[in-house]
Amino acid sequence: MVSPSKPGIAFPSVVDRAYKDYKRHLKVTDIMSRDVVTTTAETSMEEAARTMGERRIGSLVVVKYGRPVAIVTERDLLSTVLAGGLSLEETPVEQVMSYPLITICPNTEIREAARTMIRKKGRLVVFECGEMTGIITAADLIREMPDAPESSLVVDDYMTKKLITADETGTVADMAVLMGQGRIGSVIVTRDGSPCGIFTERDLLSKFFARGRSLDTPVGEACSSPLITAQAGISIHEAARIMAGRHIRRLPLTRKTGLAGIITARDLVEGYAK
Q: The pTM is what?
């Protein structure tokens, strides 16, 4: 909508303002994933990893005695099992799962959900009347991040400036240990010293554990390429829009001198939660 008294200056229309107000008051029930994939405490981590890879998800809710009691994540797989030198086949989910579950009510507004996620450092499992009805991840939250004042904060304040890189000739097994030991979710892959791709926890699950491929594969053959980047200095809302549109959870940021850092879906949730 253009102001008649000031041609060329656009103001938000009533529809635009109403939509932004609607986005600010979305509730957990509006954005949660209702298809919660579960596993059992006795299941091997090999099977759990394969299930996560096949479903392209980063966690499984663990059921024991018929009730959801814990959660096991891709980070547990990397940091506890692979980096710890444990056997995937012989390690049960119960040995590495996180409990108790972090729970939330379906009628909670999404900004409060974001605050709970950052404060308790984990995915949120939605319960209503004692029954599990959904799950909320950082990716769910950034897909619906409203264009509000708090989301106009710049990514530079929340990005990680120390990037972990590895040459394309390194193996996927090496990357898994590197990510697990550093408790990070991705490695920037380089070719002749220049960034050419990114290898993530989700790549490990979906491209290898789900398909039974050897982890001795060079990471250059397995990384996501070309590298999707954005300029440092953009708002967290713009970063969320790019990540949701490209279906990615990590966004490397650049300046004229090269890579400046990386921001994750969880970093964006932290910015929105403040």
A: 0.86
